[in-house]
Amino acid sequence: MEDLLVCQDISKTYHDGESDTAVLSNVSFSVSAGEHIAILGSSGSGKSTLLHIMGGLDTPSKGRVLFNGKAIDTLKPKDLNKIRNQQMGFIYQFHHLLGEFSALENVAMPLLIGGISRSKAEEEAKKMLELVGLAHRLEHKPAALSGGERQRVAIARALVTEPKLVMADEPTGNLDHKTGLAVYSLLKDISRKLNTTFIVVTHDRELANKMDRVLTLQDGHLQALDNASL
Ligand SMILES: Nc1ncnc2c1ncn2[C@@H]1O[C@H](COP(=O)(O)OP(=O)(O)OP(=O)(O)O)[C@@H](O)[C@H]1O
């Protein structure tokens, strides 16, 4: 299988006034198209930092990220934004839905931004909301939805552009265990159905073990072997 995303020798140090915090040290790995991987690490291990670097939201101090064979640091901001909007989807612990818009409008938003007509965008958004089991909640605003429903809207929004890659940062961290598991398996099932590559970062070993491959992040180093001591 082809590599969709390659991290080459990534290091990240934050400079905060006088002090330096080394967060990632020479992290290298590849993710094949269609693969589901988890990056497992305890709090503060650098998971979000790594995810932001992979998604082009932050830059490494050293090393580079290749997406579809292209080094993302060599892209013009306009081209990187286009890739981020059309080929990547992001899901966070908190849903980040827009409160004044309905579920349907929230999910249609990435398509509208991409220049698709309102009628087509709403048609696609409706299909995606049906896929996550929310056909009966199209007109509800986020405040009128449960936590699990909001996260399902966020999943629909991340997948509506049919991105090549979905990146999720503790996507169920804000939900109770049972709802979290249900939302997670939905996310995995839809990614499989759409043949989407899926990277999740989490501290939750149970969730991580549901993926094809688990990488562990410890003291800034990534290990391919699952580490029972985490
Ligand atoms: N902008 C920043 N400036 C300085 N230090 C930072 C910055 N962002 C993150 N850090 C530090 O880098 C380390 C890794 O942070 P990161 O958010 O990547 O960890 P994480 O594994 O996602 O943690 P959590 O599971 O708690 O969200 C932490 O020690 C954090 O305090």
Quick structural overview:
With 230 residues, this protein is of the alpha/beta class.
Q: Terminal Cα separation, in Å?
A: 30 Å
| Uncertain regions spanning at least 5 consecutive residues | 226-230
Q: How many helix segments? A: 7
**CATH topology label:** Rossmann fold
Which class best fits the helix and strand makeup?
alpha/beta
Largest sheet: 6 strands, mixed
- Under the CATH scheme, the architecture is 3-Layer(aba) Sandwich
User: Any idea what the radius of gyration is?
Assistant: 18 Å
Number of domains: 1
Strand order of the largest sheet: 6-7-8-3-9-10
Give structural attributes.
230 residues, single chain, globular, six-stranded mixed β-sheet, binds adenosine-5'-triphosphate, Rossmann fold, four-stranded antiparallel β-sheet, alpha/beta, 10 strands
SSE arrangement:
Elements: E1 3-16, E2 19-32, E3 36-40, H1 47-54, E4 62-67, E5 70-71, H2 77-87, E6 88-91, H3 103-113, H4 118-131, H5 147-159, E7 165-169, H6 177-194, E8 197-202, H7 205-208, E9 213-218, E10 221-223
Parallel strand pairs: 3-8, 3-9, 6-7, 7-8
Antiparallel strand pairs: 1-2, 1-4, 4-5, 9-10
